[in-house]
Description:
The protein has 276 residues and is an alpha+beta fold.
Amino acid sequence: MALKVSKKKLSLFTSNFSLTYFIFFIILTFVLMFMDYRYDYLKQIRKDLSIVTSPFISSTNSIMNFFENIQDSTKSNASLRDEIKQLNIKIDKLSIENQIRNFLVAENENLREANVLSKKLSPKKTFFAEVTTPTIRGNKKIVVINKGAKNGLREGMPVVNKLGLVGQIFSTYEKTSEVIPLLSKKFAVNALQNNGKNHAIIYGNNEFLEIPYFPASIQISIGDIFVTSGLDNVYPSGIKIGEVVEISPEDKQFNKIKLKPSTSSNQFSLVTVIDY
């Protein structure tokens, strides 16, 4: 019983002692604050503490700045990603608009070309097509177009564009056709000199057009133009074939004539097929 009373007294004493110390420190704190404010007693202590704590404060600030920079950088990157996304959307939109514009330009070009050809050649029918693949197959240069038997095309039809003769369809499939271009070694056409008098057969030579034997007695000059004669019943008359760029004597009787074709498979993407 006496032990329990002693413990109770000890607990009460400890509690009172703690309260007394707490009050003492509170009063001491206020006294020190007042003395420091009035007489600047703690200036040196503050200075010493500042020296000791400055590196820690600086490190803390650096760490805080580091994380703030990361946060700012993250926000900045997110903003840049949004801007890039919006720019890509605009680029895609412009690309689509450009494709539509090119398509409309091509369609208008086709209509103008059809009108010119109709007046000049009087074909039964014309078909517009796009060149999908200018290729070389073996030793043959081939031009593939995106129209075929399903569209009414057939072998032997002439192929032209606004510059002149492109070639002739030699093979048709359901949705595509293969065209022998001017420069192909399999190509040949009955031609007429631009004076309207002299006829010749022009052949392809893979790299240029040529007339192997042109009478030396007939006047011909660099720059002369040859057009289709219509005599072969394959091509309408008056379609430009090529221009004379070289005249070489073969012998006393004949000259070899080299011509630059009016069209090249690398220079066009749209053609017109003629039902003649």
